[in-house]
């Protein structure tokens, strides 16, 4: 009997997470038997989050989709609604339907791709898929569900490319602000560095968040503003800094434009007492934080994505990221702000995605408005064909009730390429089985560190699973597209890394040999220490002529949420609670929300609210409650954890609808309204009412 063949492969975590971990996988006779964090990787440093620690359970799950299927029953949840077919039949069916739609009076723009970053790999997330749909002439998708509002606000201020402080240099910091960031759960390797800075530098860790997250509870200080008021808080800090002459005048003179205009605004319009009224943060806390932030260096503001998911989200990020220039924080190693490191890479995304192949005038559909797209409420032709991959929109898209109404349409032809039978799969006409991260090759950038990484194929694909890149090559062949535009993976990777100066010296051969390569940037990386920024003025633009030309206030300001009790008292009279929906630590959006072990750890859906709000509604801990507004409803257990202030509630997710007691999740209540910039999502801009429900909501309706 031969001895088993055992190899060790270094893979990359595919999740939409800034940590982009290096993973060491042990493979025996083609089966992955062990997975752990890479001890040799400077950022991963040997550990994985609770989600990925059991990734092999996901790879080997008996619930994996393993072969193509065709619908034979009605759309919606239920058993026996699909039959197995072969790949040739599935691909022919898709190609024929796409061709028929493209040749119809509605034209190819009646076809809509829908994807996000179920995998962050460049090949599987944004390469041949884009080329395929561009050549087809399909509507393009504006992928704005996560970070676009804040990204635009950041770039108005800081310049093109999302550049920020070096995450590894947080070890040098003495004051760390997690602003809208549950770093302990959503950026755990950076959190471990923050804890190390506390030990080494006696650093103070501050968290600013409406929700008392694990990060807030483990910080030295937690400030708890009302949802959507972060810009007002930042402007109040500026008021104190300028009022008490704590600003860095030299840096302002050398590295900014608009300092005097901004100074005049904050001193006139945002005194701490007004800011306290807007935010709910006491004046004493505003003043103390301003003084400490201006005088304790190096200081880092970790700006995360939750704080931008409201009507004024882009302006909020723009306003917060003015603060480091006002106090000269960019001078110091580790100092400044960190939204994303993604702009450091300079990959050749144009070569990878080929936007030039899309016909001029092709419409773009904002992914946050999928509900409107599927129900015929957007300009342009109706959506007749939908191709979903790397995403589970039936669970994660806003206005869930209307999204599902659209997915139920008998005249909508829907293809879903997935690993598991998600909520969205329930509405598919054709289901294609997808590879896991261990079953395909890819390259990865990161938005939380500065390493380019290679992910080799570690094991054979499960069953008949195929990668996104392989499927789009096959579909392109059936539609007669130029095969030169759909090359092999190695060619695609070479095209991607033929980019900017940060990639100098990084070849595909070197990347494959080393697995992970630090970008060609200085070890002492301080991108704006000299006061030079990649803006039109060459400086940090506290006053932005571009914003003025685009119709925005050129100075930082406070834009209230769309659904704010202070500015919409009529709406708040009906729905008085501001609901936020942060991630549950056991899930990443809806990924892992079908795993038995993750579901056990997560427990039932909950609604966390203040004790006085619960008492006013006759609710006790453990009661079933209905959360409702004009858009929809969901049911969850009441949790009185002390995590939110009165007038605010939190429901952590995202649970699949089919696993939820009401058959709907938190996104049944969220709005498809857009943020002020970048077409961003407004998930945390959501007024609701909460009322008592039956003990067993599956048995009947909730109380009226």
Characterization of this structure:
- It is a single chain.
- Helix 2 packs across helix 20 and helix 5 runs parallel beside helix 14.
- The radius of gyration is 25 Å and the shape is globular.
- It has 26 helices and 27 strands.
- With 704 residues, it is an alpha/beta fold.
- Strand 24 and strand 25 form a beta hairpin.
Number of strands: 27
Give the strand order of the largest sheet, numbering strands 1, 2, ... along the chain.
Answer: 5-4-17-16-15-6
- Described by its quaternary structure, the protein is single chain
Main sheet characteristics: 6 strands, mixed
- Give the overall form: globular
**Uncertain stretches:** 699-704
Compute the gyration radius: what is it? 25 Å
Distance between the termini: 70 Å
Contiguous helical run count = 26
Helix fraction, binned, reads 25-40%
What is the typical, i.e. mean, pLDDT? 96
Strand content: 15-25%
User: What structural class results from the helix and strand content?
Assistant: alpha/beta
